[in-house]
Fold this sequence. Notes:
The chain is an all-alpha fold and 134 residues long. The protein has one domain (27-122). The chain is built from seven helices and no strands. The termini are far apart.
Amino acid sequence: MNNSLPPINPNMFNPNIINEETNKTLKQLFKGKINGSFLIKIKSAVIIKLSTQLLEYYNFHFDSERIVTGRDETPEYDICRTIVGLHRHHSIFLTKEEIRNNEKSESYQKQLVEETIEKIKLRQYGSAFSAKSN
């Protein structure tokens, strides 16, 4: 019996491949709610604009309990969820053509990036406004 481990695929640790796979997964998760390429473009712009501030708003510490219980949410998923919510809010009464035009509009893209960042910064205060249970 051979007890050797299978060979490790070096692509598993390639940041570009990891990023591509993450983006593919995010596009699939939000399919039908937003144009996937538009979502990834806005997500990337938000991450670049926030830069190291991301560390202030998201927990990057390894927590096995959160992972095992399924309560672990990646910052990228949360950012995308925020983008989708805001974009759908802006698009609720628009035609498909108007939505596509917005997605192509540089000013709309900038607005969506700014609003997403604002929501990310404010989310840490959200619990102060929720009802307290006794």
